[in-house]
Amino acid sequence: IPNFANMIREFNNPELAPRNSFHVAQRAARLIEFDRTEDLQELFEKGMPDPWYVLGGGNNVLFTQDYPGTLLTPVAQGIRIVDEQPDCVTVEADAGVEWDDLVKWAVQHELWGLENLSLIPGKVGAAPVQNIGAYGCEVKETIRSVEMCSTDTCNMVILNGEHCGFGYRESVFKHALRGRAVITAVTFSLSRTPRPRVDYGDLARETERLGDPTLHNIREAVCAIRRSKLPDPAAMGNAGSFFRNPTVDRSVAEELRARYPDMPVYPAEEEGKNKLAAGWMIDRAGMKGHIGGRVGVHDRQALVLVNRGGATGGEVLDLAREVQRAVRERFGVEIDMEVNIL
Ligand code: EPU
To answer: Which of 133-165 are b and which e, b meaning 16 or more Cβ less than 10 Å from the residue's Cβ?
Structure first.
């Protein structure tokens, strides 16, 4: 007998502390966990009252108040090989898969492309939204397509990677498709040919310490570096980098470089621009390790703000503004928040 039961779970007035990595204690009016795309489509066909927001792992969000609408959480957990060529293997993962479980799976299957993105907290569905990146790689390099429900038409749409508007921590999902799409699965092109990329920071050295640059060793090296610098959200609430590295005109970067010769300056995607290291500037502005009551700036990576226990979203936001002000006053540079403030 076919099972026609709805595969959704609805929660009224749920506590959000266990659903956001800052562990901020707010509530939402309603939260819906959905598994099948049909159920998601049906929810929008019936009419989804505003406001609504997709809450994946809650790793890039700061709740500063109770959420007055509906939070939608994908819970589908599948990882499937959908095509196999001699070198390229196409893998589809559902939005609810824990990101690092996918990386682990790819490494176990000897598939290259995701290993530098090991241990990034969050779900697969969030990866394309911010074009997650670390250790010289960005997820856009492996994304073949993104499956989403268009909430305007209630149709499922497949968007090719080239049409996702990917940039540094940027995508179309943050702009033209903001509030108009729910990502349900992501398809990746992975490679069987070894393609080690260890030129970022300490990665080569850390990998060498473990042996050859195998997939497994690169993953372990990335995990070791992350564990040494970034707080574990399970132990101390945080959302990874709270700020984005700012892009400035090359002339601004050159002036700053003249004043601060050891300041890191990177190439930017745009012509005539440079990217600066927000973490370095926060550090040099004297804010690294700064403690303000129940919140603080992490003492090993200044881009990360932490909830030292029981903080509200408002307290984190106040600290974020203080950090922005310190960088502005010292360097004349604006640093934008990467985390979504709700
Ligand atoms: N730096 C300092 N002090 C600090 C932090 C950084 O001096 O407190 C300096 C470092 O020494 C280095 C430069 O700033 O010269 C860059 O630091 P790092 O290599 O740690 O990288 P990041 O630019 O601060 C970005 C990502 C991280 C990612 C790392 C490693 C952003 C917003 N953040 O940080 O991503 O793990 O590169 O690839 O682009 C995240 O998004 O949540 C995240 C952790």
So the answer is: bbbebbbbbbbbbbbbbbbeeeebeebebeebb
**Cα–Cα distance for residue pair 238/56, rounded to 1 Å:** 15
Residues having CB within 6 Å of any atom of ligand 1: 134-135, 201, 230, 240-241, 244-245, 264, 277, 279-280, 283, 288, 301-303, 338
Whole-number Å distance, alpha carbon 147 to ligand 1 midpoint, is: 30
Measured distance CA(125)–CA(259) in Å, rounded: 42
Question: To 10 degrees, what angle do helices 99-108 and 215-229 make?
Answer: 150
Q: Which residues on neighbouring strands pair with residue 325, listed in sequence order? A: none
For residue range 28-73, list pLDDT tens digits in order. 999 999 999 999 999 999 999 999 999 999 999 999 999 999 999 9
Q: How far is the CA of 302 from the centre of ligand 1 (A)?
A: 8
What's at 276, amino acid-wise?
A: L
- Token readout for 50 is 């505003």
Distance between CA atoms of residues 131 and 317, nearest Å: 23
CA of 241 to the centre of ligand 1 (A): 8
Evaluate if pTM is beyond 0.85.
Answer: yes
Answer for the pair 167, 131: CB distance below 8 angstroms, yes or no: yes
Q: Quick one: which H or E segment has residue 70?
A: strand 67-74
